Amino acid sequence: MDGRVISHLSRLALLLLLLLLSAAMTPCADSGSIRGRVLTAAGKGAAVPNAPVDARNPETKATYKATTSDGSYELSRLPAGAYEISVENVTLFLPFHQNGVPVVAGKATRVDIRLDDINLNTLGDGGELFVQFLANKPAPSGPAPRASDGKPDISGVWEAALFKPVGEVRQPLPWAETAVKQRGKRGRITDLGPAACLPAGIGFEPFGYRIVQTPTLIVVIDGGHNPPRQIYLDGREHPKDFNPSWMGHSIGQWEGDTLVVDTVGFNDLGWVGAELLAQFPQTEKLHITERFRRLDLGHLEAVTTYDDPGSFKKPFTSRKVSSLAPKDIEVLEYVCAENNRDLPHLLNPPDEKRRRSSGRNWFQVGGTP
Question: Can you give the residue ranges of every domain in the chain?
């Protein structure tokens, strides 16, 4: 074949390819889009990261999805029509739904979404604080370090991280499920320990925490409500008659590069759950198993299994990955009871059973309003 013919055919093929690419990149004349921002309803409106936004056409049943980046989202190439917009399953925030959002061919419809948040109705909490929990936290890269004894080194200051359920959903017993429903409306939680300056329990570390590691003992210093926690690595067993406590009694051992921590001896005053603030009442039968693994220099994984036959039909598991905090971040002193003014702001009075069980006056424990 003549070289000029081949050259002509090559140019023709390139032209067709460019036309196809241009058509793919150009919005269809018979479609439109929905765009906007997802913000907190409280305060000035902080951008909510990684929020899933769905648009559903009730006539065609078709669903289109997007995820926020810096709070912004765009649902493109939507056939003209009316859509149902929803944002669900954003930890610490309540679901959002809006019907009848119009999409016009060739145009963009703007829908800014404000998310109400789950809260304790205490001073200073709310959406802007929760956004900090959800935000991606930068962490250093590199291999996981090792301690002087050759074990993985999990020490350091770790950023707060949210639990995510693993496997089957929790199955509370009827009395525990009823207790949750009685705790407030619209997702508000009013009688957790932290609301009255009491410990929050294992895994609840919304202000970060420090791990101090030695060959025979690990100490966890919480940046918030919890007292320091001791994890014994010296081969001891649990005491046979341990006085029930908020944090229980913890013993650990290394299984390869994974630290397995076994904790029993809890009181029945706390609440447990697979996510922050998604909590259920616990009993003294609670048994927690944690598996810590340093994934790399900047990340620490904690897989936690809760087994409480007094409150749940079967055990359930959650997972979180904490980022190593910058070097200038420290765990500071936290004194909740000092000048505590939160108690009058609670929606419901403190739980009477828990007040009697503590053997102390609830409002004295919380400080002077």
Answer: 35-136, 139-366
